[in-house]
Amino acid sequence: MKGTAVPSEKNEMRDASKSLSFGEKTEILKRYEAFSYQIAHYLLQEERAAQSAAEGALLELYRSEEFFRLTAIQKGEYVRKVSMKHALLVRRQADTSRMRA
After folding, report:
1. CA geometry: angle 23, 54, 27, nearest 5 deg
2. Residue 36 contacts residue 57 (beta carbons within 8 Å)
3. Burial annotation 48-86 (CB, 10 A radius, 16+ → b, else e)
4. How far is 67 from 48, CA to CA, in rounded Å?
5. What is the CA radius of gyration of the chain?
6. 16, 27, 66, 98: most buried, per Cβ within 10 A?
7. What pLDDT was estimated at residue 100?
8. What per-residue confidence (pLDDT) applies to 16?
9. What is the mean pLDDT of each run of 10 residues along the chain (101 residues)?
10. Cα dist. 23→20, 29, 92, 97 in Å?
11. What is the rounded end-to-end Cα distance, in angstroms, of the chain?
12. Distance between CA atoms of residues 34 and 79, nearest Å
């Protein structure tokens, strides 16, 4: 699939005892940013909602030490799951807002 993240395994896995710097984490997350947005946009079919969902997903991933210890293939699956979760949360918030109005 064109445009999706296919990072190399090189330097992807880290020793659990070694913490990544802010810059190292953001470099890894940049590889998955478009993939996260694509998933959210496919599910939500709305640009702003997809952007919000992708931002939430990337923030969750940034805070997850587990994510940074995964292989590249495992990271892709993890990003997919977290992105879907955040897209559904955004959808639920939008539906709740509409019901109150």
Report:
1. 15
2. yes
3. ebbebbbbbbbeebeeeeebbbbebeebbebbbebbbeb
4. 26
5. 15
6. 27
7. 81
8. 45
9. 51 59 96 98 97 98 97 98 98 88 69
10. 8, 10, 33, 36
11. 40
12. 11
The pLDDT assigned to 8 comes to: 52
Chain position carrying tokens 């946009």: 41
Tokens of 74: 């495992």
C-alpha to C-alpha distance for 35 and 48, rounded to whole angstroms: 16
| Token pair recorded at residue 89 | 């949360």
In the block, residue with structure tokens 């090189």: 10
Sign of CA dihedral 65, 2, 36, 83: negative
Tokens of 76: 């892709």
CA distance linking residue 37 with residue 40, whole number of Å: 5
Q: By C-alpha distance, which of 30, 24, 23 is closest to 11?
A: 24
pLDDT at 18: 72
